[in-house]
């Protein structure tokens, strides 16, 4: 598990290898990840956007920006958490992701970034 705390918001990531498949005559490697965002502050916060840098050993870095996560902009009360799962397709059996969430403190309207720790993907057969 990969974990990082920024401004009282704890982000934990668990990854899984989902398998391989062919798409457009090329092998792809499917990875899943589950992220838990825990609010360790005394204020209610809302996740409004995300930024990802996706590293693939066989491709250039891909950047993805978007609103919320999996179609939601979760509000997280103090000492509560939000968990979601998503996935990533890579051309290589080895890669990684990192990024940040844009959050807002609903009491003060202060906007801030929360770092997402770099988490690695590796197909079991690719690990020596």
Task: Outline the structure in words.
The structure is a single chain. The protein is mostly beta strands and 128 residues long. It has one domain (2-122): ApaG domain (Immunoglobulin-like). The chain is 0% helix and 71% strand. The chain contains no helices and nine strands. The chain has strands spanning 2-6, 9-23, 26-39, 45-56, 59-67, 75-76, 81-90, 94-105, 111-122. The strands form two sheets. Strands 4, 5, 6, 8 and 9 form a five-stranded antiparallel sheet that branches. The two termini are 20 Å apart. The model has no long low-confidence stretch (mean pLDDT 95).
Structure characteristics:
single chain; mainly beta; 4-stranded antiparallel sheet; Protein ApaG; ApaG_domain; ApaG_sf
Entry summary:
The protein contains no helices and nine strands.
Layout of helices and strands:
Elements: E1 2-6, E2 9-23, E3 26-39, E4 45-56, E5 59-67, E6 75-76, E7 81-90, E8 94-105, E9 111-122
Antiparallel strand pairs: 1-2, 2-3, 3-7, 4-5, 4-6, 4-8, 8-9
């Amino acid at each position: 598990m990969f974990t990082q705390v920024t401004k009282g918001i704890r982000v934990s990531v668990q990854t899984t290898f989902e398998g391989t498949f062919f798409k457009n005559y090329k092998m792809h490697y499917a990875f899943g990840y589950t992220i838990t965002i825990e609010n360790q502050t005394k204020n209610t916060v809302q996740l409004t956007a995300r930024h990802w840098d996706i590293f693939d050993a066989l491709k250039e870095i891909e950047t993805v920006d978007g609103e919320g996560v999996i179609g939601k902009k979760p509000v997280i009360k103090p000492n509560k958490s939000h968990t979601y799962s998503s996935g990533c397709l890579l051309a290589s059996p080895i890669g990684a992701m990192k990024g940040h969430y844009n959050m807002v403190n609903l009491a003060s309207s202060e906007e801030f970034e929360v770092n997402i720790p770099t988490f690695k993907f590796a197909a079991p057969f690719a690990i020596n």
